[in-house]
Specification:
The protein is an alpha/beta fold. It is 15% helix and 27% strand. The chain has a 7-stranded mixed β-sheet with strand order 6-5-4-3-2-1-14.
């Protein structure tokens, strides 16, 4: 199984418009961060996690093949603003999009033409499936377990796929949800910046502490803004088993 980071940035991306900080001015491609999204793939199956406003750009660099499932974490624009750009993949048939009730209800309001009884020609063919936290989703040979984390006071969805756990936009997690992280080998989790603290997102120290709590063999930090610092410098400060992910990075999963 292969994990590809399509985007690792926060809601405004990096570089941020109008910013002249050394991260936004960096020539290192590792410091260019599109909005968060990822692909999990086997030879037979392709799962997309989140479809933000950069989805079209991100997929231009990927082989064109069927997407078997889209897993949405929540409705915020940087995670769901690119749903309309699923339309090219509809030539393979309806695209199954999984979302919790909050996200599904909002999506039907945001892009109602995708769910009309009589869709206009060319509209995305989306099969919206309402998930339940802790209830298994089968995507061909892959088992997906959605579980709940908190984005400030907003419940959102994280995903366990085999021994991979993908979590974004988390501030806290209830102790009862930790059972779904047992024996995780690869953890992906959000780390906005070092300081100051944020009301809805973990900082780097929070993410490192959470990684230690989970005990994964390797951890990748995502959803990072320009305030986190230069990619090369951050990775020198992090423990060897924890690293700042970058756009286009691929990881072979055990």
């Amino acid at each position: 199984m292969k994990l590809t980071f399509l985007g690792t940035g926060t809601s405004v991306g990096v570089p941020a418009i109008g910013c002249t900080c050394r991260v936004c001015q960096s020539n290192d491609p590792h410091d260019k961060r599109l909005r968060c999204s990822a692909l999990v793939e086997t030879e037979n199956t392709r799962i997309l996690i989140d479809a933000g406003p950069d989805f079209r750009q991100q997929m231009l660099g990927q082989p064109f093949r069927k997407i078997d499932a889209v897993l949405l974490t929540h409705i915020h624009y940087d995670h769901a603003g690119g749903v309309d750009d699923l339309r090219p993949f509809c030539q393979f048939g309806e695209v199954n999009v999984y979302a919790d009730d909050i996200t599904a209800d909002a999506l039907m309001h945001t892009v109602p033409y995708c769910f009309a009884d009589h869709r206009y020609p060319g509209a995305p063919k989306i099969n919206l499936l309402r998930l339940r936290h802790h209830r298994e989703i089968k995507v061909n040979e892959l088992s997906v377990i959605p579980f709940k984390v908190m984005h400030s006071k907003m419940p959102i969805t994280a995903y366990r796929i085999g021994k991979l756990a993908y979590i974004t936009d988390m501030k806290t997690i209830d102790d009862s949800e930790m059972a779904y992280l047992k024996d995780v080998d690869t953890l992906v989790v959000n780390a906005l910046r070092y300081t100051p603290d944020h009301h809805a997102h973990q900082n780097v120290d929070d993410a490192v502490a959470f990684a230690r709590r989970v005990g994964a063999r390797q951890t990748f930090l995502i959803h990072s803004c320009h305030d986190i610092g230069l990619h090369e410098e951050v990775n020198k400060k992090l423990p060897p088993d924890i690293q700042l992910a970058y756009d286009g990075q691929t990881v072979i999963l055990h």
